[in-house]
Fold each of these.
Amino acid sequence: MIDLRGDTATKPTPAMRRAMAEAEVGDEQRGEDPTVRALEERAAGLLGQEAAVFVTSATMGNLIALWTLAKPGDDLIGDAASHVFQRELGGAAVVAGLMARGVEGTGGTFEPEDLHRAARSQTGAVEPSGVVTIENTHADAGGRVWPVRLALDVVAAARELGLTAHLDGARLLNAAVATATPASAWGGAFDAVTLCLTKGLGCPFGALLAGSASLIDEARERRRLLGGAMRQAGVVAAAGVYALDEHVTRLEDDHVNARRLADGLAAAGVAVDPAAVETNCVLIDASGMGLAGADAIGRLASRGVLASPGSGGEAVRLWTHLDIGPGEVDRAVPAIAAAISSP
Ligand SMILES: Cc1ncc(COP(=O)(O)O)c(C=O)c1O
């Protein structure tokens, strides 16, 4: 099987496992785990923030961020197709008490005017209050990058409106590598930023939430409330430190492989737009080939290629990652083309 369901499909490499086995550890809840502390400091610097806290998953990072940046009854504004809006609203509602206001974005992005409209739709009289979240890269849009200028304009609009701003940067390093831009160019503008370790970075566990020192103190307390404070977590944090050393610049390989996959599929007549591939995801327009997304995914699986559905049910997503090289791409192309075009 060639597993293109997600860039989460990776297994830790032997070198990453060695780094984990050799990690110095301590009681993380007491701030005594040197490897966790090193990872948090590295991540804060990378994301242009003062401090960071190690969390179990990007979902937990996003939840703690939104909970810390807004109060019950506030609006949570974001792109309706984002991961937060598609998969994480339950936590935002139950734990943080937020009211979701989805914006219909374009290719995963939206404009400051969209934010103004969404924020003002609440009532005529009450000042908007709450948090806006954006996702960079945007998974459902096929790993699309938010242009830095647009992200900064949306943050400026949030400030004008009195809203706080959160960046779901689960794949921010893909955006950084694809555009040769420091992650801090986006990250430093937001009140809080989530970075995931288990996607293109290839770790088995964890994410980081970064923000000001006071916000991260508050986030640590909320992480404890959720049962997310840890003990000798340096064993898993070591994978993160290793990945930040060794797996960032190589994200470009995933991007090159995604373009190779898209070009190959387009040449084989599959409904793919290679020009839309900005990072490590390729979208097949199944409906353009007369198929429902689920049907197309089933056909691919029967030919040995695993894919995942886009949120609309019509697109099929293929993700490249650490465990996919040009050889896998070249085997996947004819298998996918045959699966989709067979009667
Ligand atoms: C953009 C984005 N944010 C957040 C998440 C949640 O990540 P996790 O599985 O670490 O909770 C995902 C997962 O795929 C994602 O794609």
Note: The chain has 14 helices and twelve strands.
Amino acid sequence: MSYSFDRYHKAELQRRTGVKWRRDGPAMLPAWIADMDFPIAPEIEAALQEVLDRGDLGYPDPSLDLAVREAYADRVRRRYGVAVAPELVVVTADVVQAIYLSLLAYTKPGDGVVFLTPAYPPFFTAIAETNRRAIPCDLVNGRERYELDLVRLREAVRDGRARVLLLCNPHNPTGRSFSTSELAELAAIAEEHDLLVVSDEIHADLTLPGTEHVAFASLGPEAAARVITLSSASKAFNLAGLRCAVAAFGTERLLAEFERLPAHARGAVSVLGMTGTLAAWKNGEDWLTAALLVLAENREIVQDWGAPHLGPGALHSPEATYLAWLDLRRFAIGDDPSLWLREHALVALSPGPEFGLAGRGHARLNFATPRALLEEILERLSVALGSFSSKSS
Ligand SMILES: Cc1ncc(COP(=O)(O)O)c(C=O)c1O
């Protein structure tokens, strides 16, 4: 089947009711929150339509929840070599909820949570709002990519008396997909300090051609027994508004501790969320393969634009996801360049400082959009940044 990823033009996208296109009005081009501007997979659309055609929106039967857990277990076994029993998987409303629940289930107020920065903003809020202690540890901007600084990480874990490593792999916002050897180093640190690992792998299926996703749980039995892996079809299949995610537990004991949180406080997932997820994981393979090719092309366009417009080292080609992390410090347009760019380029990027101190002077660009729009976004950025540098030179 051939899929049309550029079906929606600007005027149609502007009629969308989601926050990406609604927040700023028609003059702004949105390239911020992690939603894609593509149509959803027809296989998912058909599955959702069937439910609607039956008027089938009553309380879901537990067999639907079980089917999602089985589909997840089957998928990670096939794609990532992870053996997880469906009995050790829990369906949750979303990944961020599962992060909060994990912190509440396994740690006490004041316990330290170490994570790699810059970081997905809800990592900061989840730690702060549960009264746990944030132990941020900066990635290093290397020649080719962002790298782990293992010495600094060991110190952070030891000095901060961390209890949990909250990992994001593939990493938002840098687009890093950590290699087996990097993850083995992280697993060694986790073992040395007996850390629980909460591994947010929501971007795994968006690993771009040329890179393979390595699941933390695939590293070996020791690593598998100390990890809770969080995932969802929402990023790769663009279903964030449907709300459905999974948490996979390394052991029965971890699951039992999690399940001590009251069931109704953990919330429930909708029929449409589970139906969409099931269709994505069972029938969405061809669409996903096609989407990854489009994203890889867009990545090239952004990369080709980045070097001449942003200067050397300001943008590393992401190995996964459709997010480009831009180092805009040479333009001296403030700690939050997205503010200046909203005004001068009429492009909305994600503000770097929301990703922590390491995000000052940076912004995140979402390139999951039809090519014509991506070109318009980059053109607007070029003109604004170009006029700025010619004024300042
Ligand atoms: C790393 C990461 N985790 C979680 C989420 C959000 O997932 P959910 O909507 O399931 O909470 C995102 C969304 O962009 C993300 O980038």
Note: The chain has two domains: 10-41+285-392, 47-283.
